[in-house]
Design goal:
3-stranded antiparallel β-sheet; alpha+beta; 26% strand; 2 helices; 134 residues
Amino acid sequence: MFLQPKRSKFKKTQKGKLKNLELKKNKLRFGQIGLKTVESGLISAKQLEAARQAIVRKIKRKGKLWIRVFPDLPISAKPIETRMGKGKGPVKYWSARVKGGTVIFELSGISVKNACMAFKTGGAKIPLKTKIFT
């Protein structure tokens, strides 16, 4: 199952605007090497899960992986070919707001070469430009 909140105070929220740079969540907290975004945007829970699976496959389940973002923004969509009006559509998927410079994944207990290879394949699953850093 994909990441999503167990409960939320409101069923539907507005997407809002994203600032360019992240100043708090831009440093490593748990691992030795990390994957961070270069630009701002939304990452869906499916994309996060696909990236996580790709990274875990590449490192052959050695080392420890941390996910630093959580999809807590409900994205609603109306069915196609529906007339205007009659309220907001149902929640289609969950997404994470990500500013530029936010750390998405962290790895430790694995060689830097293998970690870079794993992050390269994982970063390809994310719709934003990413950067590997230590």
